[in-house]
Target: DUF808 domain-containing protein
Amino acid sequence: MAGGLVALLDDVAALTKAAAASIDDIGAAAGKAGVKAAGVVVDDTAVTPRYVHGFTPDRELPVIRKIAIGSIRNKLLIILPVAMLLSQFFPQALPYLLIAGGLFLCFEGAEKVYEALTGGHHEADTPAVQSGPEVEKSMVSGAIRTDLILSAEIMVISLSSVEDEPFLTRLAVLVVVAILITALVYGAVALIVKMDDVGLALAGRESSFSRRVGRGLVAAMPKVMTVLTVVGIAAMLWVGGHILLVNVGEAGFHWPADRLHDLEHWFGDLVQGGFGGVLAWTAGTVASAVVGLVVGAIIVLIAHLIPKRKKREAAH
Model:
């Protein structure tokens, strides 16, 4: 009896260790996948605050909550089933999906550079506070549609990090990534959006220190948004270019990925020690961003400049 109990306890302990190891593996894989999708996450965080522009302060957090709920539905109910079915029954499609996603990121990044240089933009800012619940509903719907594209990028990039894992591990990793990324992005968005209100509240206090901090926060937020936008653009070009280089190789054309690998090795060998690795990573990142910018610029040229020229010619 005692021997059977000891054996049972041993089995329970073994199962507990196996479960803990499995959880550790899922956590590590989710962390790796999240890092790989970092460029899209930064862009998602930079893009979303514009959808609450013009709302009264009491509506900002409810609107962000609605967008976050829509985002998690996008990830878990639409993107996750499609991604898992493709990875299980048609895994050879994954590189082509990533190439399409990389092209989209390059286009988005290059388009933002083009808009910054020309002063143009595509979104008309409608003051939501003047238009009521219908505009709020429209803005939330637009944000969720945009999130669907960005969430698809995040999930597919994450899936590519664990494509060799068993089905249940892939599923668990994508669920963890979906929940954590959504919490990270929309938690950061909420902090960014409400920082002005925090600054104004501090600026109205009697303490001179609080007033200085409050005024500093209010003055800093436009600069923070500018930096976040620039980082988001750079991240899109880097991640998009790197996805293209790697997955064009996965699809059978290895020359671009091989040249990137050679470049990283060459820079890494210039300096001995840990700094060589930093130099190699920097060289690969810059090269990927340049590729992303060039490819994105070509797509922008096709998508915007050529149609405009045809319209001008037709008008004359």
About this structure: The first helix runs from residue 2 to 36.
